């Protein structure tokens, strides 16, 4: 913003992930970039299978975006290897994760943040419009994620508790079709990750905190687990 730039581009340490900031200072994550890429590639007739491959943590807005445009939205488990496997199996050429790990298989067999950034610049140059104008085509639902540190990070420990099952059922009912809750074991840390998504940010924050507190309560009731 201070430089009056059209956009900002940031990579992770090995540059296989990219996140951008538009001219208004808004962060546009991997889901938004997938939507922009899908729309452009579909218009060019280059989106194989008319499909976008993402993970089950991708924003519900991306699924809605694809549905509105008659595109297939294929989800996998979290992890770029799962996305790549689905792309290879189905012969698709666009996929990625919300974290900015984007795969353009026509140009590279794996995620490449710098390639994705160049592809975005190409689209912006051709469209002759600001990034914010392209990004707003996809409605992004509020998502709240909480990492809960527990002694035994397995979902089975909590799913065995009736009050956990009741709480998850209540949350799903409260969110309805416009929201969801995902509770999963982290693949890299000794934590259980809670993700709640819906149209109302305040509601989503409250429900995520309630689930996290319940997980901590159930975990404290099992002091013999290490």
Summarize the structure in words.
The chain has 226 residues and is α+β, with helices and mostly antiparallel strands. The protein folds into two domains: 7-135, Alpha-D-Glucose-1,6-Bisphosphate, Chain A, domain 3, CATH 3.40.120.10; 143-220, Alpha-D-phosphohexomutase, C-terminal domain (TATA-Binding Protein), CATH 3.30.310. Helix content is 42%, strand content 21%. It has helices spanning 30-44, 60-68, 80-90, 113-127, 131-135, 155-159, 162-175, 201-220; strands spanning 7-11, 18-22, 27-28, 51-55, 72-76, 94-96, 102-104, 143-149, 180-185, 191-197. The strands form four sheets. A three-stranded antiparallel β-sheet has the order 1-2-3. A hairpin with a 6-residue loop joins β1 (7-11) and β2. α7 packs antiparallel against α8. The chain is elongated, with a radius of gyration of 19 Å.
**How many domains, as an integer?**
2
From the spread of the alpha carbons, the general shape counts as elongated
Q: H/E order of the elements?
A: EEEHEHEHEEHHEHHEEH
Number of strands: 10
CA gyration radius, whole angstroms: 19 Å
Q: What's the pLDDT, averaged over the residues?
A: 93
Instruction: Spell out the CATH superfamily of the largest domain.
Output: Alpha-D-Glucose-1,6-Bisphosphate, subunit A, domain 3
CATH class of the largest domain: Alpha Beta
- Name the poorly predicted regions: none
Structural class: alpha+beta
Report the biggest beta sheet as strand number plus sense, adding barrel if it closes. Answer: 3 strands, antiparallel
Level-2 CATH architecture of the largest domain: 3-Layer(aba) Sandwich
Looking across the biggest beta sheet, what order are the strands in? 1-2-3
Spatial separation of the terminal alpha carbons: 48 Å
């Amino acid at each position: 913003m201070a430089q009056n730039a059209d956009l900002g581009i940031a990579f992770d340490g090995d540059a296989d992930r990219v996140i951008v900031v538009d001219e208004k200072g808004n962060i546009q994550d991997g889901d938004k970039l997938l939507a922009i890429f899908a729309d452009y590639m579909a218009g060019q007739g280059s989106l194989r299978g008319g499909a976008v491959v993402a993970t089950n943590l991708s924003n519900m807005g991306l699924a809605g975006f694809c549905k509105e445009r008659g595109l297939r939205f294929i989800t996998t488990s979290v992890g770029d290897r799962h996305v790549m496997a689905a792309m290879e199996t189905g012969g698709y050429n666009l996929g990625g994760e919300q974290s900015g790990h984007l795969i353009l298989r026509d140009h590279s067999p794996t995620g490449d943040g710098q390639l994705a950034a160049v592809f975005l610049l190409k689209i912006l140059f051709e469209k002759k419009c600001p990034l914010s104008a392209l990004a707003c085509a996809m409605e992004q639902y509020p998502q709240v994620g909480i990492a809960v540190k527990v002694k035994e990070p397995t979902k089975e420990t909590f799913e065995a508790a009736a009050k956990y099952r009741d709480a998850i059922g209540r949350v799903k009912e409260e969110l309805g079709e416009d929201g969801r809750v995902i509770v999963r074991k982290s693949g890299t840390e000794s934590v259980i990750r809670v993700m709640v998504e819906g149209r109302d940010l305040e509601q989503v924050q409250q429900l995520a905190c309630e689930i996290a507190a319940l997980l901590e309560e159930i975990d404290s009731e099992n002091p013999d687990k290490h």
